[in-house]
Amino acid sequence: PSVPRHTNRLVNEKSPYLLQHAHNPVDWYPWGQEAFDKAKNENKLIFLSVGYSTCHWCHVMEEESFKNKEIGEIMNKNFVCIKVDREERPDVDKVYMTFVQATSGGGGWPMSVWLTPDLKPFVGGTYFPPEDGVHRVGFRTVLLRIAEQWKENKDALLENSQKILEALLHRSEIRVRGQESPPPSKEVMATCFQQLSNSYDEDYGGFSKSPKFPTPVNLNFLFTYWALHRTTPEGARALQMALHTLKMMAHGGIHDHIGQGFHRYSTDQHWHVPHFEKMLYDQGQLAATYSRAFQISGDEFFADVAQDILRYVSRDLSDQAGGFYSAEDADSYPTTVSGEKREGAFCVWAAEEIRALLPDPVEGATEGTTLGDVFMHHYGVKETGNVSPMKDPHQELKGKNVLIVRCSPELTAARFGLEPGRLSALLQEGRQRLAAARAQRPRPHLDTKMLAAWNGLMISGFAQAGAALAKQEYVSRAARAAAFLQRHLFDPASGRLLRSCYRGEDNTVEQSAVPIQGFLEDYVFVIQALFDLYEASLEQGWLEWALQLQHMQDKLFWDPKGFAYFSSEAGDPSLLLRLKDDQDGAEPSANSVTVTNLLRAACYSGHKEWVEKAGQILAAFSERLQKIPITLPEMARATAVFHHTLKQVVICGDPQGEDTKEMLRCVHSIFSPNKALMLADGDGAGFLYRQLPFLASLERKDGKATAYLCSNFACSLPVTSPQELHGMLCS
């Protein structure tokens, strides 16, 4: 590569997104005191640009505007320019996204916001084209107009920004009003089910027409709803909606049939043409959701998809030290000699490529059938490409095919006169050859930043799949990642989590000069992961760490006045607002997940105040949960867990004994949303016995592994056979 013409301060950062902009002609600063001081001293406005390294439109705006020398000069002359990676600093992103959504009615990335020197926003948007067009004003014009406004009307602008801030503070406050109690669980669950049912797509599954997102939070809500209403028609419909959605997603183009894992979302109603980036948080949540679908249905199809996701993550998103990388980009070079990247280039196929790779005649099929014929028929491949021009505005996918399962195996087999049993081997052979061919293509950019929160979601995925599918290697992988977090994203001296670490030169793990402290979501998703890992492995050390982190979370983020947790801690003067997320989206919101975490923590520790806190969070969100629970399906689910109280499933037995293992397999094979599993191994000096004195009174009956079902520390009669335990857990 030639020597870059420009270099700015971002060259010293660790974030892959910031490093992508280190050679723009823009004098970028990272978020921090140096930039704030410059703005104050020179009395300049701040231009804040927020994005992430696998964001398609962020790349477009960089190519068009931030690499443009003239635009760079306008930016440098009039503004202090700051770049933020939203995955490193979700707190900064959230403050200004709240502003952009409130003032423009929409939001997204790249986010472009102009701030006064004291960081108050006064105008903002998302992507701007470089020059004026018929329908939108160009970035150059916006920059010049805002610079002009600051010269001419500084005082009005400052006054306006103060008003905006006050309105935002008022709008974004979530607190208990008066003596509220948690909302009635039955009504919240019924309303949420109704709202999901009304927005459900009967044909293709999912809960919108297009674009379609995977939204594991919706599917997990439906599983819990089913578990509590198994015998009713609504319960049956909840399960059918969830399983049908998971089937359609797995057949669709959003699922990478050649390279495994799931893309971000589908641009159409059929789950066919995706935005091709792959995010760690989707893989983690979907692995857990497909494992639950298998637990409930017993259908191996779902187990296969869960394993497919974990194969992708183990191969492509795993650091050798044990952590998980954040994401893979959508854009890549079509060939090694291409000059520009295209979206989806790594994943799509021309029909003739597939024919050339799969020319073999198929024995026993209709005369003249090749492996290519069978493969192309099954995966909906067309000679002229199978992507509708409507879904390809930039013509990046013209003549290309996104694989999507178009037929059942029976239909494909019948079409070519094949035995149905032979088809899966033929398709597998086809997929392997395409994978080998694809491995020769230039890979998309990999974001090798490792985030505590997303690693937590992925650990849960491995741990839950390991338990539900009875695969020890997944539980071990989860434990390796948890040990990685303890080593690289935790400060034992302060007891606090860190947000991020990075893959450095020669594959070492690096930390930034000033490490970013963990946010609420880091604590919540890591604590959830440690509970999931304890249940899968029964290693008490994970439990002990989870409870320590829960105490730290309470100390840093709890709002004693209005209840619930703030997303970021107090004391950062550069953050204008301390917010509470109020939406379960691509990731569940931290307050939603923490309700169940607190109930689990109370089960393992006997600390009653954690149950009280869980109720207070539900009270703080009470109005939203009663009116539009569809925006908080994970919290709606938690109202049911709170209402039915968690059952402690205690197995008394020798961890190595076959009878104990059989009882544990029975517990792991059942989907039961309101249980906390624990093993009483008889070691009175162990962590659990010290936390829960009542365990000492439970004994093994006739020397056999014995199960008790306890609620609020009162226990059922002992059972010693998996059949009896199964009956108890399902009743």
TrEMBL record:
Gene3D superfamilies named among the record's database cross-references: 1.50.10.10, Glutaredoxin
InterPro entries: 6-hairpin_glycosidase_sf (IPR008928), 6hp_glycosidase-like_sf (IPR012341), Ssp411 (IPR024705), Ssp411-like_TRX (IPR004879), Thioredoxin-like_sf (IPR036249)
GO BP annotations listed: carbohydrate metabolic process
Coiled-coil segments: none
Sequence ranges assigned to domain Spermatogenesis-associated protein 20-like TRX in this UniProt record: 7-168
Protein name: SPT20 protein
Native source species: Corythaeola cristata
Lineage: Eukaryota, Metazoa, Chordata, Craniata, Vertebrata
Gene: Spata20
